[in-house]
Each structure stands twice: as C-alpha cells, then as structure tokens.
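S1.2 Input.
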Amino acid sequence: MKISVIGGGNGGQALAGFLALRGFDVSLYNRSEWRISRVIKTKKIRLEGEINAVANISFATTDIGKAIEGRKLLMVVLPASAHRDIAKKIAPYLEDGQVIVLNPGRTAGALEFRNVLKEEHVKKDVIIAEAQTFVFASRLSNPGSVRIFRIKNAVPVAALPASRNPELEEVLMNVMPEFEIAESTLYTSFNNIGAVFHPATIVLNTGWIETTFGKFEFYFEGISNSVAKILEKIDEERCEVARRIGMEPMTATQWLSYAYDVHGEDLYSAIHNNEGYRGIQAPAQIDCRYITEDVPASLVPLSAFGRLVEFPTPTIDTIIYLASIMTGIDFFKEGRNFEKLHLNGKSVEEVRRIMEVGE
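S1.3 Output.
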C-alpha cells in the first residue's frame, strides 16, 4: 500500500517515519519547504524515544498533487484549524478509492472536511474518517529527527458515513492495528480529550508561559490540583452534552486508562501517573495549536452542541472567551460553529443522523 502523510510537523514526521519502518511506501507533504528541507534531501527521518531507528521514506515534497498521486491512504496530520484549507488544496487531485484520515479530527472534523469537498464539487469516491486523537505524543528534536514520547495503546477512528467503516477497517488494520473502529464520528468527536487537556491549561498558565517561554513540563507542572479541577469541570460538560446527543462518552480518566494504562482516583492523579507525559514541555507562546486549534475546532463546536441540547457549558464558554481576549480572535465567530458546519436550524435527531450517516 502507498501512503501519503500530509503535514511535516511533529506528528507528521513521526508518523511518516513510523509507517516507513513498517515497510510501507510513504510520501511526506508540507506546504513550506524549510520544515522538511532535510527530509527532502535525505529521504530519511530519525525516530527517537519509544523507537530508535532511521526510517527511509520514498520522498518529501511541497507539491500536494505529487504527494497524493496514486496513494491509497492519505493521513492528514495537521492542526484541525487547517483542515478546511487542506481539503480545498487536495480536492482537484483526489482519486477514486482513496481513504482520508484526519489525525485527529477534533470535533466534527470529518463533517467539515466532507462539506468542503462538496463545496469544491468533488465527485470522486473517497472515504473521509477522523481519529479521536493522535497516536503519538511527539516533538521534533532536530531537523529530520523526532522524539516519540509514547505510543498510545489504542485510538478510535470512524468514517463518515459510518456505513463505510468496514472499508475503512480493511485499509487501516493492515497499516496500524493501533486503530480501533468506532461506531461513528459521534464517538470520535465527543471523545475529543484535547478539548479537556489543552486550552484551559494554556489559559491558566499564561503568565508562566510568557515569562519562561514554556520552560516547564506542560502536564506535570502546568496541571496543578486546582487546574485539574477546572479540567474536570470541562470534562463533565463535554460528557453531558455527548449523553444528551445520544452517545455515552469516556471520561478523561477513563480515556487515560484506555490509551495509556494509567489510573488515578481523580484526573490530577491520573495525569501525574502517566509517564508518557514526562518531558513534554509547554509551548513557548500562547499562540500555539493548543489555543489556535483546540479552541476553534474543539471547544467552539462542543459549546454549539451544548446549546442544541439545551445544556449550558459555562466553563467551556469561559475558556473560549478568555482565549478570544488573549489572542484578539473571536473564536465563537471564527471557529467550527453551526453555521460553518451547516447545522443551523437542525434538530438533535437531524444532527445525530448527519454525524452518523452524513445526510
């Protein structure tokens, strides 16, 4: 199978190297050359941490058409805020039978991607799927070198519509058995744990981030007992919205057990028992994907779904408001709101059907 990894950042280079080591023919795309210039020249990616090896990929390029030509599986490893743009870029080059997986989709990522392809009048028969999270915790250490801190035990993934899950499973299980097919994108979208862990931790550590340029451990030092209590409240709101939509979610502590085999009596202890988070530094500035991705593509749609089911989400809304003030971006307006998702005026049952069967 030929695979294209779309996105040459921390996750993209890690995944490209990982898949190449498993024997697949892998291309790597990034829109800017500087980030992948070494990989373009050498066709090599050095993996460190959980895996120590040098992987040989087929090629790296800034030409999206060349990157995906003749490739069965397209692994999109980009911030969810870039999904709309990348959908427009790949639309003219898509081929019948290709499988597109958003790693991760965050909340309603597959729906947004599908809507863009419709707007671009794409007639090719492709499968669009979203993963609930990214399979690695990883960071670039040097040009062409990436450290994988931990490989998650399992990552749910689902196609939109869910009726194409058997086809998705046939492709993915031959590539990454770490994936588990979920019932629908309702499950992957509402089990978006990044919405819980990332934005509030940044907002509540803004002073420390701006003073030290992120020179502290994000999870172990940034999530204190008090911060963890706020994350728990965000998690409670997320889970109740999911239940009212009709999907039983995993709590954040249940997810830590599922993904990392770690346990704790509360969220604070479970996070601090996870050695997979050891050494992960905070972002150097607040203008990072934990805000620019996770607020508009995670918290904003969760807030919108909350209004749909008439369940208030005051903690989620507060973090959105504070992030908007800090960045000067109106995330309620610019994020994945119901207008952008084409869900305005829909009932709960209609939204549920759209998230499950795409109609």
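S1.4 Remarks. The chain is about 45% helix and 15% strand.
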